[in-house]
What we know:
two-stranded antiparallel sheet, 20 helices, five-stranded mixed β-sheet, mainly alpha
Amino acid sequence: MFYVPLYVELLRARPAWVFWTATLVQAAIWLVVPTLFYTAPPGELAELLAIGHEFRFDAGVGPPLAYWLAECAFRLGHLFGVYALSQLCVVATYACVFALGRMIVGATHAALAALLMVGISLYTVPSPNFGPPLLATAVWATALLYYWRAVALGEARAWYRLGCALALLLLTSSAALILIGILALLTVTTERGRAALDRPGPWIVIIALAGFVFLHLIWLQGASAGLAPVLERLRDTEASSGNTVLWLQLLGALLLAHAGAVILLVLAAGWPRVRAGPAPPLAREAVEAFGVTFARTVALLPALTATAAAVLIGQHLPIGGAAPLVLLSGLALVVIAGDTIELYHQRVLGFAWAGLLIVPPLFVPFVIALLPWTIGADLQVAQPAGAMGRFFAESFERRTGEPLAIVTGEPRLAALIAVAAPSRPSVFFDADPGRSPWVTADDIRKHGAIVVWTAADTTPVPPPEIRAYFPDLVAELPRTFERAVEGRLPVLRIGWGVIRPGSVEPAP
């Protein structure tokens, strides 16, 4: 008896229903898991919130929109609000890819392209760690959708919506000029793109974007060390081979992020071979030549260009983050697969996709509980941020009679305390004061501060770099904090000292 799984029939009859069910389930899972099991913000989210808390144009981190939105979400719903913002970006990304795919390959194949994105790890496990790459992915997806409407479908109003999306991209990502440049290249090198330039819409958008490009360049200049290091690396013959290796490593990391999608493709293609035939094929109308060129260009060029630019400026991560660079990987694979797609191993394929969706979040509580006992890993998301924030805020207020306004010391530790403390103090990066222009020496003298560092033992001695900046700091006995799961981990001791208002003057 020939067996066809329900999801295959639903893909054929109700592709939009399949897409929205899968997308919303994924978003709900990755909203609930960090809310229930993370006791501290993941990745660099604490530092992002510490910077966004100041709402500064000159924060020295590049385009600031993601920092500001994260702070707004935190004020509305604390970390739950930030996690919700992250998943809203993922849902918006998937929705734009699905809408774009419907116009290029039809609804059924567009749903297949969106389902393949579950196999790209950049959109699942790291998604609670909100930042410029995740926001840029949603904005870039929106820009691609309206670019297709403007150029391929000839919708005049789509040009202005495209302009708004590109303006937001310039406010969000340090890779915005690379991504916009790829759209410009696609426009001038294709017949359809050149024909679109005969209308007034694109020229109005170009003129309007000039001011945002100027702001973007100012932010990039503030966040970089200039062109001199780049030119020096280009002249260094010994560095050329290292640059090539680094570039290949970056590309390899992007390919590795597609491991789940590759598993789905291998199963769908019928390997290993079995006697059972494929499900009835999922057919579509032929894709026009511009659609094929568009999908391949946008799927490949951003990754190649951003990784090469990262190597030139000495970064070990792609410019603007990896997530925007692989946005159309699923759609490009569906376009390349042909007008008729046959799915082998239908039942196993369904279980594999469900496993990619459900297994990683199910492993989160087990990882948090088991790793401290097995390999002794101190997970950032398992640190007692709430207890640390309350203790240092209350200690400062008891000693000075004023709410804690500034915290400094080890960057991540200081940012973690700043996020968790009830008074939401500002963070001062004493190792690089230029990163925190919102705090001056006068502010520290006037309001005081808490200085924190990780202590190896109970000796109240600050690290040399902190002692150099605060030579008169009197350290307190390190404070011990209990983790939810201690396991084989060493005791978490935090060294600290109080700078009373008007009592200690930092070094110049």
